[in-house]
Target: Actin
Amino acid sequence: MEKLWHHVFYRELHVPPENSKVMHAVHPLLPPNYKERMAEILFESFAIESLYIAKSPALVLHASGRTSGIVWENGSCCSYAAPVYEGFPLKHATVTSPISGNMLTERLQSLFFKTGYSFTTPFELDVLDQIKKEICYIPQDYEQELEKTAGYGEGKVNYTLPDGQHILIGEERFQCPEVLFRPELAGLKCGNIVDTICKSIDLCDHEYRSLFFNNIVFSGGSSMITGLVDRFTKEITKRIKVNRPDVTARVDAMSKRQYAAWAGGSILASLPNLKGFWLSRDEYDDSGSTRVKYKFF
Model:
């Protein structure tokens, strides 16, 4: 972790850490000892001015102009649904899923391997990730889309690789992200995106469930896949129509939601009334890492 922060301060930002205030977005279920260790490194190795540790779903909601709602964030290593009420993530109702951005890239790698294309080096995996972002999509009807590509050859794209080679990409474009709705296609035994969000909301008090269904906010790189929002809205509406006919599901898909946590952090960090909530270097020197538990529970 120390090497990572050194790279950030001196190679990326080119700023002296001793004059820096650091706001760090973390996973809502991150264990306390990680936060303490991070504070220890930042204050003792880099002598930063002050630190604020914020839970990512709260920052995502700030970016959307809300203080309450449920965030579905798809990161590189995992995804999760986290309800947030008045700025506080509800830990007991946070539900994680192994369906991640990296897993979708691995799924695309597997699909290409079956057609004779091999992507194995780190550079080639980056190319796969770019293909996923640029041309993958989620159809409204998966079975119908399979029939179209098989029978009429529709939807195929001639993609140019960085070395100038051309490859024809067809049903892989939608078979890859379909895992978000059918995890079993990738051999996963877990709920899909709708299951994850509904389970999270069901773990909340009954009086807040309508609020969360009305304020579903997407975040993360894979949430940008074309067709995801429309398909999700269709699927969750079908699901809640049976048991919750009086509830409407509304999804906020911000245009640059892959940066939502960062955007929310920049908004929060600029608020003057946040001043007393930062952990200063003097506070840390007086109380050590135990102060982190009190400040950022």
